[in-house]
Amino acid sequence: MQQASIHREEQHALHPALVTFVTTCFFVSGATGLMYEVLWTRMLILIFGATTFAISTVLTVFMAGLALGSYVLGRRLDRVEKPLQVYGILEILVGIYAFAAPFIFDCFIPLYRFCWVKFSPSFFTFSLIRFILAGGALLVPTFLMGGTLPALSRFCVRRTEQIGAGVGRLYALNTLGAVLGAFSTGFIFMPWLGTSRCILLASATNIILGILVVGAARFAAAGQPPFPSAAEEPSRASEFDERARVYALWALAVAGFAGMTYEVAWSRTLQLVIGSSVYAFTTMLTAFLVGIGVGSYACSRWLRSREGRAETIMVLHILIGLSAYATTFLFGKLPYVFTVLFKVLGQRSQGYLWGINFGIAFLVMLPATLFSGAVFPIAVRVAGGGGVGRSVGRAYACNTVGAILGAFCAGWLLIPHIGILSTILMAISLNLCIAFASALIVGHAAGHFRVKAAVCSLVIGAAAILWHPAWNRLLMSSGMYKYAERIKDISPESFYKFTEGSYILKFYKEGATATVTVAQDKGRDNLWLALDGKIDASSVSDMPTQVLNGHLPLLFAKKADSVLIVGFASGVTVGSVLRYPVKRVVSAEIESAVIEASYLFAHVNHRPWDDPRLKIVEADVRNYLLVTDETFDVIISEPSNPWIPGAANLFTKEFFTLGRSRLAPDGLFCQWVQLYGLAPSELRTVLRTFRQVFEYALVFETMEKTDLVIVGSRGPLSIDYQEIRRRTGLDAAPRAKLTAMSGSVPDSIARTMGITPVSADLARVDICSTADLLSYFKMGWKALPQFADVGPLNTDDNALIEFAAPKTLHWNTRDKNDDLLEKHADSVADYLVNYGATPADRAKVLLQLAEACTRRKCTSAAQRLAIAAEQEQRQAK
């Protein structure tokens, strides 16, 4: 009997070189598959929007295609005599589709816009339309990708008893290939090649790989060993085996659900610790896939000499739950760990900082993912039966369907409603529940072992529910990935005083897209609003920028009946815009929790939500501008920083062009740009890109060495001095009266004091005259060509700023950027019109402007204005 078994194994054995070749191909296929997922999602988000629902839709459709392909093709592959050739053809077809994908995606834009304009669907109906369109775009290639694992498993695995080890090895290699794809796409290919060239690289790789495989299949056909017949397969038809197979499939589905739930929740946790840049997300994804791949590979080797049983799956789920539970005790220590490592190593080079991020991501994700990856090979072995292709396809489909549901539920149902920590605890409970079920209903293990496993599951589950670490909201929202450099003393006492001891928590919500926090400085009136720990608005510190973002474009616009504002934040900019007699204001805000938080800023934002002229749209603004047929007189864009994915898409040429297409003929586009954390070359790139779309622009420095506000237009842009005086009413009231204004003053009270709502609002930031307002001028469209110089533009394809800005996040670039601006600055006098009928009148105005610049310590600007005034005085004589 033993000799017959050995003879059958030798009869069905493949040549080692052929096995090495096809498994290498599958490794590379895993890399390209992950590249496609990243690149296609990135491309479709630009069409469907960067909302979490749109992203979840794209990813759900992607994984659904994989599940459907593995199930449908897996059932048919057992009847195919040349599965290797089928695998090669599948790779070729995927590569061809990938090459055509950009053109296919572009075809959806008119259809997408037609649905919005024609039917004006509700949010959920429109989300369904997104789902259908994304399904049409991704179903074909992902369906084909889903068939590659069953096809190669059918070729490589010749005996049912080998299915666990063989398929596990293939799954592990494909996943480790995905690790390479994730890392190389995020850290190498995207920054180096851009989106379109990355797609060409991946598609060419798939096509070449497929051709090589088809050629190898034909070359090896003559010497290829036959597939085992059905008679050679051992019987697995007993009642117990059937229960074990069903349990194994359910265990795979739960592993997929819990695994994706962990990934989403861990990613949201790590976002608060290592940031949310494109490199941080790549780090998290890489760490997750390493755990899955290594765990699967280790388990497949273990199965070569052992028989996988349902009890093993039970033990693995217990270990997953236990590891994830233990990890929750690390969360409260991670901000301090990051800060210490950053101060010791991270400030030396970007490489050290990336190493710190990887270390923290592995610390959180690796223990549980190792055991999670080990579930697949054993579950495939237990659930095997009815042919290799069918078994693998069914198992892979169950795991993927679980992952789909986990990703959707975690992002849309669990985290927004019960929070990050509770979501992780719920996933732990699921792992332990499936282990408990195994202990009760399946398995051949000794009774005492099963009882111990059941008790262990119950004890860990009860501990997770009743005894778990508290989620320190202030600490977790401290944004150490951004502010660690500000800490001089890294002792625990100093650290905790900096992160939580100096603040009072006012609001905290884990929204669908970000964690929103509002806190107050102890001993000060300053409130600040942070998204994932990064402060984006405040009631004192950022007021000049928030207020002037609203006023500057409204003062220069020829008409300002309709205004679009990108981002709501504290609501101060929206409130400032509503000080004017505008007819309609639309604010596009992607995170609803921000709107809730803005109510705490009612004392400084004029309560804009009470104004019937305001409409708040919960949407990604690119998506909104793409589908709407409305036009606006003014568009004000004040997103978060350009190193943050999503916000980075609002600094590209394509976004500026899209905004221009939605402007009225004489409309203005206003853009906020930071001076901190951007290298001078990156600042030039942003302004060069803006100027490429809006040739005529005026640049204002609203906070010294901190913020710029750029106002751009299609045609020549001048500064009408008298019109600004009329619109603001600044010079109609004495400076002393305006200086006495503080906070938000009701319009009725301001008018009784002879002060307009606009002038009262400007007085809050120490702007009490037209000269004060214009003293913020830095540069105009005549000087911008020399400043922006010649160089690359920031586009959707190359994403220059998104990939470059995280590298300079901790650089002290304020002085360099300010010096560069000052070197190319010109005088506001070059753009003034209607500021005096005679040279003497104009000289007087210019001297007032020079005095205002002197008060603000803008010495160079004051000197330029003094020279211009002297020239006017000469003409007067």
Folded structure, characterized:
It is a single chain. The protein has 877 residues and is an alpha/beta fold. Helix content is 64%, strand content 9%. The protein has 36 helices and 14 strands. The longest helix has 37 residues, at 83-119. It is elongated, with a radius of gyration of 31 Å.
Task: From the structure above, extract its key features.
alpha/beta, single chain, 64% helix, 8-stranded mixed sheet, 14 strands, elongated, disordered N terminus, 877 residues, 36 helices, 4-stranded antiparallel sheet, 9% strand
* Gross morphology: elongated
CA radius of gyration: 31 Å
**Overall helicity:** 55-70%
Structural class: alpha/beta
The largest sheet is: 8 strands, mixed
Q: Segments where pLDDT lies below 50 for 5+ residues?
A: 1-12, 229-240
Q: What is the number of beta strands?
A: 14
Give me the oligomer status: single chain
Strand order of the largest sheet: 7-6-5-8-9-11-10-13
The share of residues in extended strands comes to: 5-15%
Q: pLDDT average, as an integer?
A: 87
Q: Termini, distance in Å?
A: 119 Å
Number of H- or I-type helical stretches: 36
Structure described in brief:
The chain has 877 residues and is α/β, with parallel strands linked by helices. It contains 36 helices and 14 strands.
